[in-house]
Amino acid sequence: MLLLREKIKEAGLKATPQRLAIYESMRKLGHASVDMVIEDLKNSFPTLTVATIYNVLESFVNTGLLTRRFSSNNKMYFDVNVYEHAHFYDQEENSYMDFHDQELVRLVMDYLSTKQIEKFDVKTVDIQLVGKKTDNQ
After folding, report:
1. Angle value at C-alpha 32, between 45 and 135, nearest 5 degrees
2. CATH (residue range 2-79)
3. Looking at residues 59-73, what average pLDDT do you find?
4. 82-87 contacts: CB < 8 A, separation 24 or more?
5. Of 37, 34, 84, 68, which Cα lies nearest the Cα of 54?
6. Contact, 90 vs 133, CB < 8 A?
7. C-alpha gyration radius of the chain
8. Is residue 115 a contact partner of residue 75, using CB atoms and an 8 Å limit?
9. pTM here?
10. How far apart are CA 83 and CA 56, in angstroms?
11. Are 44 and 65 in contact (CB under 8 A)?
12. pLDDT by residue (tens digit) across 84-130?
């Protein structure tokens, strides 16, 4: 728990028991909505409200500890991995899975760097591949 405490403090936030629990839940879940965090913490922190969890998650986004993911089911998900990577989004289960392919991210960034996009400055690339899980390996 010491590493989590330090990480939260380094982000400029007070390492309260609620923040520690919510960040630990996000580390366990990887990609989660507020509802998923509530479900994960309902036994250990039954008094946490949706508003508190949402506010803590937003403070984590604002300090760079998490990023946001927007899904096709109109729910906001949060991602504990803040480095550049792609995602598989399963539209049947409304779930995310990281897709670590730095070559793909680099290819898209390199491609965009050669284009003159009027009135827009690309800062990062967010690649989301949409489909559904299969039984195939």
Report:
1. 125
2. 1.10.10.10
3. 91
4. 84/124, 84/125, 86/127, 86/128, 86/129, 87/31, 87/127, 87/128, 87/129
5. 34
6. yes
7. 17
8. no
9. 0.83
10. 20
11. no
12. 899 999 988 888 999 999 999 899 989 988 888 889 888 888 899 99
Retrieve residue 35's tokens: 């509802």
Tokens encoding 27:
């580390």
Residue bearing tokens 């598989």: 88
For residue 12, the SS3 value is: coil
What are the residue ranges of helices labelled H in 11-98? Answer: 17-29, 34-41, 50-62
Q: State how far the alpha carbon of 70 is from the alpha carbons of 30, 39, 77, 79, 119, in Å.
A: 15, 20, 6, 10, 24
Above pLDDT 90, what percent of the chain?
Answer: 63
Extended beta strands in 38-136, E state = 67-70, 76-79, 86-90, 95-99, 128-131
Check: CB of residue 99 under 8 Å from CB of residue 129. Answer: yes
